[in-house]
Design a protein that fits this description.
globular; about 800 residues
Length: about 800
């Protein structure tokens, strides 16, 4: 394999490949530890028996219902399943622990306000089995590492706190008190609070998140990386600089009034299935849908609403009016091509295409942007995006005729070196049409985890604003650190170089969610202590520091009894609605603690009498936490009263009123460069994706039903012509190889699958392919890993034999 060198975007870190499994870091140099063997940080490199069928062209329907019910029946008690299904996403019920798609403000379905993957999520959380001391006594770390992620998650709910002591290969029980004292001792032994990393998952409630960031800042650091860093950080950066706030501007009701919904880099049928109902309503009211995505996804072509019998009989609702299978990361080129056409017509027709009144009164930078658009050769834009002029013209015509335009996007836009630019280009299009701050129009970043947006609102951020810290100091009396902390990739690098020595994860599956799996694994192993607050077993528990703790917590579906009685928590969805969530099931074990309780007890063990916070009061009744949130964070006035109202309340959103909190009070056009991926003849651009049996790193099953891939995850989707050019055929087993900065990473044993994907583009599932993503290549400004545009080569290993 010819070795190539590519200049890194990172100015701070150099990476070098070595073969030794135990090499020290030297100064600012990260020495990448590689091996021909899987170290246990990656899923097993074995096959489970792939069956390939024709890809589906319709989403949901009765098959979705039966699949959901089968999951509930298989993993839950029948009585628990019935109770949770009819409480899920209902007013005053349980907020689904899956995605952050909002619930209707008005009436909600009596049949069930949930989707197939929502049922899979609660079946995973509320599964009937539980595991504790006996389980871990029977299974060593190496035994568990040999299991797939699917098998690990299905072992059962964690029932008691466990410790992996230095030198041991098995977890054993530990009393809660001893666990907290151990963590407090390790934290207080650090030379600086900045030697600790406090990670957060997007499933954490507002109450737990606020207490967590309060403890961490009173401890003395802003090292609060979270899952936002790896998904919509690019959206937040782009929206903040152009529109003045990092959140979307639309509500769910806006979909009922939209002329056009543009969906870019998103697969709602799998990742946000309840969005399909909103798209269905849009179509029924005369709206159009433009889908832009490298893969043709069933959830963007046709939706069979299982709650509407006539829709089932008639074959569902056709969604996308135009489907553009753009090349991976060809979105900026496509958007520039569309806007160039519109600009030409605007000049030819002397107006009436762009909203010049809005542009003149509410924006800055239009003239520079118009000049910027005219610099590009249209043929180059066609080549870069992979869409023909005729198709681009159709898209431009749809946009030309529309005023109320909603632009929706997800990871397909954010996880590139130019991820921030991608979102800014979307904003440019909406500004041209004056489509922000009107009924039926605006920005719609579709968040993944159920409270990832709320966690950021609560202060989970490594780069907090001074205003937030000032208010925290004023209200609570702590001295908040001002130096920005580690983002996720910064944290990995710091742990790798032994500059951070304690890792604490409040939820999540860090090793499987992050890039550069073997580097991240070594980073965790370099720590003196790793701690994970979890509901279920996952691979992060098996990649550990010198000592490791698993702290089992209550889930969303569990009742939470504290000193004053049963508690509820609250979350914020993708559209800024804050609402309550209250569990209804008996916890699987009396040894579980809630996340707020875990944070409070950790704070007491670490800070002791020095703390300015009455932690016992905070967890005796969560109203006290919400009272504190109300005093610190704008928009939460009368928090305890309003959150108890059915359906909750909306947070302020100036963009909805065409108000922009930028320095000059205007929305800003931006001139963004075209991304460049110069591929060699034997190279491909790879994006990582989810299966339909997966949510983030949680593997519900082994079927990707809509894409027709069953019982297998180690696959690579390739264009049939590319397979032929490489003298490969479907079923060949390939190694996948990425080369960055003179180093080589290998993901072994993937089955080639012929698929409808643009030439020179390939798709693989994560976390299996995360090992190929270099930790020091990420989006400019946001540091979001380049999970959707990794340059790779493929090498045939063998033919798959049945």
């Amino acid at each position: 394999m010819e070795e190539k060198t590519k200049k890194s975007r990172s100015k701070k870190v150099k990476t070098t490949i070595v073969d030794s499994p135990a090499v020290e870091s030297k100064g600012n140099e990260i020495i990448v530890v590689t091996s021909t063997e899987n170290t246990g940080a990656q899923p097993p490199e074995s096959f489970t028996g792939m069956r390939k069928r024709k890809a589906k062209t319709k989403a949901a329907g009765l098959k979705g219902v039966s699949t959901a019910l089968n999951h509930a029946r298989k993993y839950m008690r029948v009585s628990d399943a019935k109770k949770t299904m009819f409480a899920l996403n209902q007013k005053g019920g349980i907020d689904c622990p899956g995605c952050a798609w909002p619930d209707p403000d008005d009436d909600r379905s009596r049949l069930g306000e949930y989707c197939e993957n929502g049922i899979k999520a609660i079946a995973e959380e509320a599964q009937r089995n539980s595991i504790g001391a006996d389980f871990f006594a029977q299974h060593s770390i190496s035994d568990l590492q040999a299991l797939s992620d699917f098998e690990l998650g299905k072992k059962g709910r964690l029932a008691e706190p466990m410790i992996l002591r230095a030198g041991s290969d098995r977890y054993s029980p530990i009393p809660w008190n001893e666990a907290f004292q151990l963590i407090g001792k390790e934290l207080n032994a650090l030379q600086s609070p900045d030697e600790a990393v406090f990670y957060t998952s997007g499933r954490t409630s507002n109450e737990a998140a606020f207490l967590y960031q309060l403890f961490v800042r009173e401890f003395g650091t802003n090292n609060l990386p979270d899952c936002s860093n790896m998904c919509h950080e690019s959206s937040g950066k782009a929206l903040s600089t152009t529109l003045g706030m990092g959140k979307g501007s639309v509500t769910l009701e806006d979909f009922d009034h939209a002329d056009l919904v543009i969906i870019l880099g998103q697969n709602p049928g799998t990742n946000h299935p309840r969005m399909l109902s909103a798209l269905e309503r849009c179509k029924e009211r005369g709206g159009k849908i433009l889908a832009i995505n490298p893969l043709k996804e069933a959830g963007l072509t046709n939706f069979v609403n299982p709650q509407r019998p006539m829709k089932i009989l008639r074959g569902g609702t056709q969604l996308a009016d135009l489907y553009l299978q753009v090349k991976i990361n060809g979105d900026v080129a496509l958007l520039k091509a569309i806007m160039s056409m519109l600009l030409f017509q605007e000049k030819q027709e002397l107006g009436d295409i762009f909203d010049m009144d809005f542009i003149t009164s509410r924006t800055e930078g239009y003239e520079d942007f118009a000049m910027h658009l005219q610099q590009f050769d249209f043929r180059d834009l066609e080549e870069d995006c992979g869409i023909s002029r005729g198709q681009i013209r159709k898209a431009a015509r749809m946009i030309k005729k529309s005023k109320r335009i909603i632009a929706c996007w997800a990871m397909g836009l954010t996880q590139h070196e130019n991820g921030v630019d991608n979102i800014r280009e979307v904003v440019n299009l909406l500004l041209l049409k004056g489509s922000i701050g009107i009924q039926g129009g605006g920005t719609c970043p579709v968040r993944g985890h159920s409270n990832v947006q709320g966690d950021r609102t609560m202060g989970i951020w490594e780069a907090p604003k001074a205003e937030f810290l000032d208010k925290l100091e004023e209200v609570v009396g702590i001295k908040a650190p001002r130096k920005h902390g580690f983002s996720t990739v910064d944290a990995i690098q710091a742990m790798y170089k032994r500059q951070a020595k304690v890792f604490f994860g409040l939820g999540g599956n860090f090793i499987s969610a992050t890039p550069d799996t073997e580097v991240t694994a070594q980073a965790l192993r370099n720590c003196n202590l790793t701690v994970h607050v979890s509901t279920k077993l996952n691979r992060s528990h098996l990649v550990h520091g010198k000592q490791a703790l698993i702290l089992p917590c209550l889930g969303r579906t569990d009742t939470d009894a504290q000193e004053s009685g049963e508690q509820f928590v609250s979350t914020e969805n993708s559209m800024g609605v804050v609402q309550m969530s209250k569990g209804i099931l008996s916890p699987c074990s009396g040894a579980l603690l809630s996340e707020p309780a875990i944070v409070a007890k950790l704070a007491k063990a670490t800070l002791g009498s020095k703390s300015k916070v009455d932690w016992d009061l905070m967890i005796s009744n969560y109203d006290h936490i919400r009272d504190l949130i109300e005093k610190v964070i704008p928009g939460f006035e009368q928090y305890n009263e309003r959150v108890r109202e059915p359906g909750g309340f909306y947070l302020p959103n100036p963009n909805r009123n065409q108000e922009f909190s930028t320095a000059d009070g205007k929305a800003h056009f931006t001139c963004n460069p075209l991304p460049s991926h110069k591929l060699e003849p034997d190279q491909y651009l790879m994006m990582t994706i989810r299966t339909h049996d997966q949510f983030n790193t949680t593997i519900y099953g082994l079927d990707d039903r809509y894409r027709g891939i069953y019982r297998e995850r180690r696959v690579i989707l390739m264009n049939p012509e590319d397979l032929e050019a490489e003298q490969l055929k479907p079923g060949d087993v390939l190694d996948l190889i990425s080369e960055y900065d003179g180093q080589q990473r290998i993901a072994r044993k993937f089955i080639a699958v012929a698929y409808d994907i643009p030439s020179k583009c390939v798709a693989t599932y994560f976390p299996e392919a995360n090992v190929l993503i270099p930790v020091n290549h990420y989006a400019r400004e946001s540091k979001t890993p380049i999970s959707k545009s990794v340059i790779i080569k493929v090498k045939k290993v063998e033919e798959l034999r049945s």
